[in-house]
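Tutorial, part two.
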Amino acid sequence: MKIIAFTGMPFSGKSEAVDIARKKGIPVVRMGDMIWEETKKKGLEINDENVGRIANDMRKTHGKDIWAKKTLEKISSMEKKDLLIIDGVRNIEEVETFEKKLGADFVLVAIDASDKTRHSRAMNRGREDDTGNIDLIKKRDRRELSWGLGNVIASADVVVTNEGGFEEFREKISKILS
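Running the prediction step on this input gives:
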C-alpha cells in the first residue's frame, strides 16, 4: 500500500488536498482527529487552545512521534487499499517513524502557501478548532513550528504551491494522487 502524507502550515490547503483524495474514494487518516478524540476524552472543548495543549502534552509524555504511532495503529486496523492518505504530519520524528515502518511506500507531500494567503484563509474557514483572531493564528503558527513543522516541510518528497485558484490546486493534487 502506498501512503501519501500531507503536511504544511495551518491553512495552507491540506484539508482541501484531503477532500480531493476523499472524493476520489481514497481512504484518509487525519492525525488531528486522534488529538480531537483525546481532547474529548479529557472532557475538554474542541478549540485551538485545548487541542494544541493536548497535542503538546502527549508529545512530552509519550514522545514526539506519539501521533504517528497512533496513526499506524489505526492504519493497521483498516481494510488494505492501494493508496491511503495521512493528513497532519507535524514533526520530523513522525516522519522518521512513518519511514521506518512504511519504507519506500511512504511519500511526504508539503502544501505551501504564503503567510498572507494562509492568514486570509484562516479568517474565513470556520472549522471547529479555528479562530478568527490573527494574533491567535500567528501563535498557532509559532506553536506548530516549535514542534518541528518547518523541518518536516523542508524534508518533503514533493512540494505543492497553493497560491492560485482552486482548480489549479485540484489539478496539482489529482496529478500526485494518480
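The mean pLDDT is 92. In part three we will examine how such features are distributed along the chain.
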